[in-house]
From TrEMBL:
Domain of life: Eukaryota
Keywords: Cytoplasm, Metal-binding, Nucleus, Ribosome biogenesis, Zinc, Zinc-finger
Biased composition (Basic residues): 67-76
Family: Belongs to the ZNF593/BUD20 C2H2-type zinc-finger protein family.
Organism: Parastrongyloides trichosuri
Name of the protein this chain belongs to: C2H2-type domain-containing protein
Length: 92
């Protein structure tokens, strides 16, 4: 059986944010702040092209649009929606 193409978040040298941390970033105030970051030379694309759902910076708007159409982004959005609804049932 072929190996997985992607590496899980647990195995990476620099793991990304967990689902609960990303859900906090999706709150309207934090989301707007993350999407409208000041220019930073150290980040790809100056930090201007950021996907909040996946916690990734992109070099150009075209790269970000390609990412938005991709499988990994769609899976992340679906996973975030699933987690959000499960929390709703726990609260009530």
């Amino acid at each position: 059986m072929p190996s997985k193409h992607t590496i899980s978040n647990k195995v990476r040298k620099r793991p990304g944010l967990d689902i609960d941390q990303i859900q906090k970033n999706l709150e309207p105030e934090k989301k707007e702040k993350l999407e409208n970051q000041p220019f930073d030379e150290d980040l790809p694309g100056g930090g201007q092209h950021y996907c909040v759902h996946c916690d990734k910076h992109f070099a150009s708007e075209n790269d970000k649009e390609k990412h938005m159409k991709g499988k990994s982004h769609k899976q992340r959005v679906k996973e975030l929606a699933k987690e959000d609804t499960s929390e709703m049932f726990i609260k009530y």
